[in-house]
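Appendix B. One record, verbatim.
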Amino acid sequence: MKILVSACLLGVNCRYDGGGALNNSVLALMERHELIPVCPEILGGLPTPREPAEISVGRVRTISGIDVTEQYGRGAAESLRLALLFGCSAALLKERSPSCGAGMVYDGTFSGKLVPGDGFTARLLRSRGIRVIPESGIGEL
């Protein structure tokens, strides 16, 4: 199976803080599946590192109040384009991210509180019939 994967889960240093989130269970998937790494934030034109951002009332804003909704939308669209180009039937995404969060995201107050919802990329992928799995659901693959 071809799976779109948050690049940070493969150890790519593309997270907002300049680090990665290497997950050895995700790496192990390469033995059975073809993984297509993406970072929607970078595809949307944001730098690494960058300010933390959260979704609030349908918009994405950084901790200093800068609206980056357009970049998140562009990154989601580019991620979808790659998923379709490579024929991905599933996406394994970083949890809680305003791009990749699947099922739960931060509430937009930068307080660490989670609320039900999807990040921009997760929501767009689901809307196009691509199965979205948060990293904690890796056992589903």
